[in-house]
Amino acid sequence: MSEGVTAPSTTTARLLQIAPYARLIMGAVFLVAGAAKVWTPVQFYWDAFSYFELLNTNREMWPELARFTLLLGPVECGLGLALLTNWQPRFVLPVATAAMVVFIAVTFYNWQQETGVNCGCFGTLVERTPAEALVEDAIMFVLLLIGWKWGTRSMPFQWQSAPRLVKTGTILALLIVAVRFYPEADRVENSDLKKGVQLTGIELQGADVDLGDGEYLVELFSPGCGRCKKAVPKLNKLAQSLDLPRIVALSMYPQDSDVMASFKEQLHPKYDIASISTSDWKRLTWNHGYPRLAYVRDGVVEKVWEWDGMPGLAQLKEVMGKD
What we know:
This protein is an alpha/beta fold.
């Protein structure tokens, strides 16, 4: 050791060794998270609505804001590739760390408000509660800090083709988002619940129902909604008719939630109630309100009624050709 140069402490030496691995781990995390959003942009579009509502943003701005958030996937892909290839670490690591701070702040607020909105960080790959996501984000934040503080002290190996790879990967991610989202843009903006649309990709919890097979009357409701509560006696009467299909009511509230338990205890619904994801429920009620009722045959929506025009037995039998 030359005179006047202080040797790093044991802890610092270990952190210097760990830093490249922390950077690689976070590069993989950002790349996977971004790729999940890029491959399922419609799902991520609707997941974003839950956070706009959480943050009390202007409802009229939600569609435009959601379109803007579609850029998050490609940006995360670019950050992931940059971290993996060690491209511009003195710029990329602070940006990635700042992004993680924003994620933590929003997730913490979600957890504090007890909204139960699922974290959409990894698209449809993994769904976690805000508390679970908060712990993960905190660990990732520490890894990024290690990579930022100790990983930029020396300039380890950087791929010669890193700039081209990062730029090409980001552009490719943007193209995939465009190809997978914009053909669906009109359907997305007008909600999935309309005549002629096939209901696909909706996972029901709490009821053994396959909407793609057979006839159903599907209601979208919220157990805390006054109009939805008033509709229960009418739906109970319809559920007792042998001439009508099975009634399935869909809500974003979990089956074991207090509000759902209170709804069932007070109103005694005589039809099936199932829970669906928040994003699915939002897209099926967007710009329409609730309750909504749809006649679905083999997964295809044949007819939709809004809350102010809920049909009676005679009207339903006429629509289904059972007069």
